[in-house]
Protein backbone atom coordinates (compact mmCIF):
# COMPACT_ATOMS: atom_id res chain seq x y z
CA UNK A 1 0.00 0.00 0.00
CA UNK A 2 1.61 3.26 -1.16
CA UNK A 3 1.29 5.94 1.50
CA UNK A 4 0.32 9.51 0.68
CA UNK A 5 2.10 12.50 2.08
CA UNK A 6 0.34 14.29 4.91
CA UNK A 7 -2.30 16.68 3.48
CA UNK A 8 -2.01 15.43 -0.11
CA UNK A 9 -5.21 14.78 -2.10
CA UNK A 10 -5.57 11.02 -2.01
CA UNK A 11 -9.06 10.15 -3.26
CA UNK A 12 -12.13 11.40 -5.15
CA UNK A 13 -15.66 10.08 -5.38
CA UNK A 14 -18.91 11.24 -6.92
CA UNK A 15 -22.45 11.05 -5.51
CA UNK A 16 -24.99 10.29 -8.24
CA UNK A 17 -28.76 9.68 -8.45
CA UNK A 18 -28.21 6.75 -10.86
CA UNK A 19 -25.11 4.65 -10.22
CA UNK A 20 -25.49 2.46 -13.31
CA UNK A 21 -25.85 5.50 -15.57
CA UNK A 22 -22.72 6.92 -13.98
CA UNK A 23 -20.79 3.76 -14.75
CA UNK A 24 -21.87 3.95 -18.39
CA UNK A 25 -20.91 7.64 -18.68
CA UNK A 26 -17.48 7.50 -17.03
CA UNK A 27 -16.73 4.06 -18.43
CA UNK A 28 -16.99 5.42 -21.95
CA UNK A 29 -15.45 8.81 -21.18
CA UNK A 30 -12.33 7.65 -19.33
CA UNK A 31 -12.23 3.94 -20.17
CA UNK A 32 -12.86 3.01 -16.55
CA UNK A 33 -13.98 -0.44 -15.47
CA UNK A 34 -15.82 -1.07 -12.23
CA UNK A 35 -16.07 -3.49 -9.35
CA UNK A 36 -18.56 -3.56 -6.52
CA UNK A 37 -17.64 -1.52 -3.47
CA UNK A 38 -19.21 -1.45 -0.02
CA UNK A 39 -22.93 -0.67 -0.15
CA UNK A 40 -24.33 1.15 -3.21
CA UNK A 41 -20.87 2.03 -4.50
CA UNK A 42 -18.55 1.05 -7.30
CA UNK A 43 -14.78 1.31 -7.36
CA UNK A 44 -13.51 2.77 -10.64
CA UNK A 45 -10.39 1.26 -12.15
CA UNK A 46 -8.08 2.60 -14.82
CA UNK A 47 -5.92 -0.13 -16.32
CA UNK A 48 -6.80 -2.23 -13.29
CA UNK A 49 -5.73 0.41 -10.75
CA UNK A 50 -8.00 2.36 -8.40
CA UNK A 51 -8.78 5.88 -9.63
CA UNK A 52 -12.08 6.90 -7.99
CA UNK A 53 -15.42 5.69 -6.68
CA UNK A 54 -19.01 6.21 -7.79
CA UNK A 55 -21.77 6.13 -5.19
CA UNK A 56 -25.56 6.14 -5.34
CA UNK A 57 -26.96 9.05 -3.34
CA UNK A 58 -28.75 7.90 -0.19
CA UNK A 59 -30.78 11.10 -0.03
CA UNK A 60 -32.06 13.02 -3.04
CA UNK A 61 -31.33 16.29 -1.23
CA UNK A 62 -27.60 15.55 -1.32
CA UNK A 63 -25.70 17.39 -4.05
CA UNK A 64 -24.75 15.54 -7.20
CA UNK A 65 -21.05 16.32 -6.99
CA UNK A 66 -17.48 15.13 -7.02
CA UNK A 67 -15.73 15.21 -3.64
CA UNK A 68 -12.03 15.20 -2.81
CA UNK A 69 -10.28 13.73 0.25
CA UNK A 70 -7.00 14.80 1.84
CA UNK A 71 -4.67 12.35 3.56
CA UNK A 72 -4.09 12.55 7.30
CA UNK A 73 -2.24 10.28 9.68
CA UNK A 74 -4.36 11.50 12.61
CA UNK A 75 -7.93 12.22 11.61
CA UNK A 76 -9.02 13.23 15.11
CA UNK A 77 -6.31 15.89 15.22
CA UNK A 78 -7.27 17.09 11.73
CA UNK A 79 -10.91 17.43 12.75
CA UNK A 80 -9.86 19.43 15.81
CA UNK A 81 -7.82 21.77 13.58
CA UNK A 82 -10.83 22.26 11.29
CA UNK A 83 -12.91 23.46 14.23
CA UNK A 84 -10.13 25.62 15.67
CA UNK A 85 -9.58 27.33 12.30
CA UNK A 86 -13.25 28.25 11.88
CA UNK A 87 -14.47 25.36 9.74
CA UNK A 88 -17.40 23.02 10.27
CA UNK A 89 -17.27 19.26 10.80
CA UNK A 90 -20.09 17.71 8.77
CA UNK A 91 -19.34 14.04 9.41
CA UNK A 92 -17.36 12.99 12.46
CA UNK A 93 -14.62 10.39 11.86
CA UNK A 94 -16.22 7.06 10.96
CA UNK A 95 -14.57 3.77 9.94
CA UNK A 96 -15.05 2.68 6.32
CA UNK A 97 -14.66 -1.00 7.03
CA UNK A 98 -10.98 -1.94 7.08
CA UNK A 99 -10.18 0.51 4.28
CA UNK A 100 -9.67 3.47 6.59
CA UNK A 101 -11.43 6.24 8.51
CA UNK A 102 -13.15 9.19 6.87
CA UNK A 103 -14.63 12.51 7.90
CA UNK A 104 -16.22 15.41 6.02
CA UNK A 105 -15.78 19.09 6.74
CA UNK A 106 -16.47 22.52 5.28
CA UNK A 107 -14.13 25.50 5.19
CA UNK A 108 -15.24 28.98 6.40
CA UNK A 109 -16.56 29.73 2.91
CA UNK A 110 -18.72 26.60 2.83
CA UNK A 111 -16.70 24.40 0.45
CA UNK A 112 -16.91 20.73 1.46
CA UNK A 113 -13.96 18.32 1.49
CA UNK A 114 -13.08 14.96 2.99
CA UNK A 115 -10.36 13.68 5.29
CA UNK A 116 -8.97 10.17 4.94
CA UNK A 117 -6.83 8.20 7.38
CA UNK A 118 -5.66 5.13 5.53
CA UNK A 119 -6.21 1.60 6.74
CA UNK A 120 -5.94 -1.08 4.07
CA UNK A 121 -6.62 1.49 1.33
CA UNK A 122 -4.28 4.46 0.91
CA UNK A 123 -6.19 6.06 -1.95
CA UNK A 124 -5.41 6.36 -5.65
CA UNK A 125 -3.34 3.63 -7.24
CA UNK A 126 -3.16 5.68 -10.44
CA UNK A 127 -2.98 9.47 -10.74
CA UNK A 128 -1.45 12.13 -12.98
CA UNK A 129 -1.95 9.80 -15.94
CA UNK A 130 -4.66 9.88 -18.63
CA UNK A 131 -8.05 8.98 -17.14
CA UNK A 132 -7.06 9.69 -13.54
CA UNK A 133 -7.04 12.50 -10.98
CA UNK A 134 -4.38 15.18 -11.41
CA UNK A 135 -5.41 18.34 -9.52
CA UNK A 136 -7.97 19.96 -7.21
CA UNK A 137 -8.75 23.54 -6.25
CA UNK A 138 -11.26 25.30 -4.03
CA UNK A 139 -13.33 28.12 -5.55
CA UNK A 140 -14.38 30.65 -2.93
CA UNK A 141 -15.56 34.20 -2.34
CA UNK A 142 -13.90 34.38 1.08
CA UNK A 143 -10.18 34.12 0.44
CA UNK A 144 -9.46 36.22 3.53
CA UNK A 145 -10.86 33.40 5.70
CA UNK A 146 -10.09 30.45 3.46
CA UNK A 147 -6.38 31.06 2.84
CA UNK A 148 -5.36 30.94 6.53
CA UNK A 149 -7.79 28.05 7.12
CA UNK A 150 -6.03 25.66 4.74
CA UNK A 151 -2.63 26.75 5.96
CA UNK A 152 -3.64 26.03 9.56
CA UNK A 153 -5.51 22.78 8.94
CA UNK A 154 -3.17 21.17 6.41
CA UNK A 155 0.06 23.09 6.88
CA UNK A 156 0.00 24.12 3.23
CA UNK A 157 2.63 26.58 2.04
CA UNK A 158 1.16 28.92 -0.55
CA UNK A 159 2.33 30.80 -3.61
CA UNK A 160 0.35 33.21 -5.79
CA UNK A 161 0.13 32.24 -9.44
CA UNK A 162 1.39 35.69 -10.48
CA UNK A 163 4.69 34.72 -8.87
CA UNK A 164 4.79 31.49 -10.87
CA UNK A 165 4.26 32.77 -14.43
CA UNK A 166 6.56 35.78 -14.56
CA UNK A 167 7.77 34.85 -18.05
CA UNK A 168 4.21 34.84 -19.42
CA UNK A 169 2.78 38.00 -21.06
CA UNK A 170 0.13 39.86 -19.06
CA UNK A 171 -2.93 37.91 -20.15
CA UNK A 172 -6.25 37.19 -18.46
CA UNK A 173 -4.86 33.87 -17.23
CA UNK A 174 -1.97 35.45 -15.31
CA UNK A 175 -4.28 37.97 -13.62
CA UNK A 176 -6.51 35.30 -12.09
CA UNK A 177 -6.54 35.55 -8.30
CA UNK A 178 -5.12 32.09 -7.80
CA UNK A 179 -2.94 30.54 -5.13
CA UNK A 180 -1.24 27.14 -5.14
CA UNK A 181 -0.80 24.83 -2.14
CA UNK A 182 2.33 22.82 -1.43
CA UNK A 183 2.55 20.23 1.38
CA UNK A 184 4.29 21.04 4.67
CA UNK A 185 8.05 20.75 4.51
CA UNK A 186 8.29 21.64 0.81
CA UNK A 187 9.24 24.81 -1.02
CA UNK A 188 6.02 26.36 -2.41
CA UNK A 189 5.86 26.47 -6.18
CA UNK A 190 4.66 24.59 -9.27
CA UNK A 191 7.01 21.64 -8.74
CA UNK A 192 5.50 20.78 -5.34
CA UNK A 193 1.91 22.07 -5.63
CA UNK A 194 -0.89 19.57 -4.97
CA UNK A 195 -3.89 21.92 -5.20
CA UNK A 196 -4.95 25.50 -5.02
CA UNK A 197 -7.46 28.26 -4.38
CA UNK A 198 -9.33 30.38 -6.93
CA UNK A 199 -11.62 33.32 -6.22
CA UNK A 200 -15.22 33.33 -7.47
CA UNK A 201 -15.68 36.79 -8.99
CA UNK A 202 -18.81 38.83 -9.60
CA UNK A 203 -18.81 37.47 -13.16
CA UNK A 204 -20.38 34.28 -11.76
CA UNK A 205 -23.98 33.95 -10.52
CA UNK A 206 -24.43 34.99 -6.89
CA UNK A 207 -26.01 31.62 -6.11
CA UNK A 208 -22.87 29.69 -7.11
CA UNK A 209 -21.61 28.23 -3.82
CA UNK A 210 -18.02 27.72 -2.77
CA UNK A 211 -16.85 24.34 -4.01
CA UNK A 212 -13.93 22.10 -4.88
CA UNK A 213 -13.24 21.41 -8.55
CA UNK A 214 -11.24 18.28 -9.30
CA UNK A 215 -9.38 17.66 -12.55
CA UNK A 216 -8.70 14.49 -14.51
CA UNK A 217 -5.75 14.11 -16.86
CA UNK A 218 -6.66 13.54 -20.54
CA UNK A 219 -4.67 13.22 -23.75
CA UNK A 220 -7.03 15.42 -25.80
CA UNK A 221 -9.06 18.10 -24.01
CA UNK A 222 -11.16 19.07 -27.04
CA UNK A 223 -12.05 15.47 -27.92
CA UNK A 224 -13.00 14.81 -24.29
CA UNK A 225 -15.35 17.82 -24.31
CA UNK A 226 -17.01 16.55 -27.48
CA UNK A 227 -17.42 13.09 -25.96
CA UNK A 228 -19.07 14.56 -22.85
CA UNK A 229 -21.64 16.28 -25.07
CA UNK A 230 -22.25 13.10 -27.06
CA UNK A 231 -22.87 11.22 -23.81
CA UNK A 232 -25.49 13.74 -22.70
CA UNK A 233 -23.32 15.97 -20.53
CA UNK A 234 -22.47 19.65 -20.89
CA UNK A 235 -19.44 21.84 -21.47
CA UNK A 236 -19.65 24.59 -18.84
CA UNK A 237 -16.28 26.18 -19.70
CA UNK A 238 -15.02 25.40 -23.22
CA UNK A 239 -11.45 24.23 -23.76
CA UNK A 240 -8.88 26.97 -23.24
CA UNK A 241 -5.15 27.21 -22.88
CA UNK A 242 -3.65 27.99 -19.46
CA UNK A 243 0.00 28.10 -18.38
CA UNK A 244 -0.16 24.40 -17.44
CA UNK A 245 -1.85 22.95 -20.52
CA UNK A 246 -5.34 22.95 -22.00
CA UNK A 247 -8.37 22.60 -19.75
CA UNK A 248 -12.16 22.50 -19.81
CA UNK A 249 -14.87 22.39 -17.14
CA UNK A 250 -17.49 19.75 -17.85
CA UNK A 251 -20.69 18.34 -16.38
CA UNK A 252 -21.79 14.73 -16.58
CA UNK A 253 -25.26 13.67 -17.68
CA UNK A 254 -26.51 13.76 -14.05
CA UNK A 255 -25.12 17.19 -13.16
CA UNK A 256 -21.77 16.49 -11.43
CA UNK A 257 -19.12 19.02 -12.46
CA UNK A 258 -15.45 18.18 -13.02
CA UNK A 259 -12.53 19.50 -15.08
CA UNK A 260 -10.04 17.92 -17.44
CA UNK A 261 -6.47 18.92 -18.18
CA UNK A 262 -4.34 18.07 -21.20
CA UNK A 263 -0.71 18.59 -20.30
CA UNK A 264 1.42 20.59 -22.72
CA UNK A 265 3.46 18.62 -25.22
CA UNK A 266 6.95 18.01 -23.91
From TrEMBL:
Lineage of source species: Bacteria, Bacillati, Actinomycetota, Actinomycetes, Kitasatosporales
Pfam family, one: Glyoxalase
Organism: Streptomyces castrisilvae
Residue span of region Disordered: 173-193
Top-level taxon of the source organism: Bacteria
Coiled coil regions, renumbered to chain: none
InterPro entries with a match to the protein in the record: Anthracycline_SecMetBiosynth, Glyas_Bleomycin-R_OHBP_Dase, Glyas_Fos-R_dOase_dom, VOC_core
Protein name stated in the entry: VOC family protein
Domain VOC, first and last residues per copy: 8-118, 132-263
Amino acid sequence: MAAFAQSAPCWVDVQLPDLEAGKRFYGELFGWTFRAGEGPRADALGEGRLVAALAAKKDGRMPTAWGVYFATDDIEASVARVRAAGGQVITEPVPAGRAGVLAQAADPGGAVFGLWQAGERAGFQKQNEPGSFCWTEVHTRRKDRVDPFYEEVFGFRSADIADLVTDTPDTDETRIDFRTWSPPGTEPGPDTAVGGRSVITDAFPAELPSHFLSYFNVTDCDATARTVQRLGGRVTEPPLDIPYGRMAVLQDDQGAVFAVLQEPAS
